[in-house]
Each structure stands twice: as structure tokens, then as C-alpha cells.
Amino acid sequence: MSDIGAVLREEIQRLAGRVSRQADRRLKKDVVRMKHQIAELNRQVAGLRRDNAKLIADLRGRLAAPPSAGQGALEGARLSPRFIRARRKRLGLSQGAFARLLGVSAGAVLAWEGGRSKPRAAARAALVAVRELGRREALWRLEALDRKGRRTEVAKAR
């Protein structure tokens, strides 16, 4: 006659093995399903990164272009040397940085502020558009220009 303890132990091991194999099958299915979900999420993240890179490149291109105002805003615009200097100082920019923002030379800004010359049509449109810019956006635009190899000269606030 066999030992009753050995028989019980074998039966318990057999039943435990059966239950654990069933649980193991379910877990393996869950793992496979989750791996598929992770792969899909990775594809989505890669697509979003590509889209984000395109949008950032587009934004940098737009920020790097000199600002421009519409024809309606240009007609009634008065651009005095005092206004140009005040706008540049309000933005906290040096004459060189302000000139880069407008797409002109620093000498042109110096001449405008001194009253020795007046801005031409494209520069007038840029100056009118600068009225709408805040300090932060002006700095963003200059940073976008800097990424193309130029250096920003921001005037020190007094």
C-alpha cells in the first residue's frame, strides 16, 4: 500500500501544474497583445515626432522671414525717427539686432533713427508689422535667424 501523504502530494502537484499552465497561457496571450500595442504606440510616436519636426521647421522658416504688414496698415502708418528708436528700445534690441529682425542693415536703422533717411517700402512694411510684435516674439524671431548662423545682439535693459 502506498503512502497516503505521497499520493496527496502528487495530486496537489498535478492540479497546481494544471492551474498554473492555464494561467500561463492567458499571461502569454496578454504579453503578445501588449507587445503588439507597444509596437503600434511606437509607430504612432515616430509619426508624431516626424510631424513635429516638420512643424518646427516650418515655424522657424516663418519666424526667420522679416515681418510684413498688409497694404491697408501701410497707408496710414507714420514712422518717425522717434517711433523707430522707441520701438527698438521697447523690444530691448540693439540697432544691429533690430536691423536683422527687419531684414535691413544696421546702418539703415542708424540713418532712420537719426532722421537722415526714410525706410523704403519693404522696410516700412516690416516696421509696421513690428508694431504688433512683443519682446518675446522678437527674440524668438532672432533665435530663428541665429540658427542660420547669425549672432543676436540684445541690448541690456537699463
Molecular structure report:
With 158 residues, this protein is an all-alpha fold. The chain folds into 2 domains: 64 residues; 76 residues, lambda repressor-like DNA-binding domains (434 Repressor (Amino-terminal Domain), Orthogonal Bundle). 73% of the residues lie in helices and 0% in strands. The protein has 7 helices and no strands. Helix 3 crosses helix 5. The termini are far apart. The C terminus is likely disordered.
Q: Number of helical runs?
A: 7
Unreliable residue runs: 150-158
Percent range for β-strand residues: under 5%
Structural class: mainly alpha
Would you identify the CATH architecture of the largest domain?
Orthogonal Bundle
Shape: rod-shaped
Largest sheet: none
Question: How many beta-strand segments?
Answer: 0
- Name the CATH homologous superfamily of the largest domain: lambda repressor-like DNA-binding domains
Indicate the mean pLDDT: 83
Proportion of residues in helical segments? over 70%
Overall domain count: 2
Please provide the ordered H/E string of secondary-structure elements: HHHHHHH
Backbone CA Rg: 34 Å
CATH fold name of the largest domain:
434 Repressor (Amino-terminal Domain)
CATH class of the largest domain, named Mainly Alpha
How far the N terminus sits from the C terminus, by CA atoms, comes to 103 Å
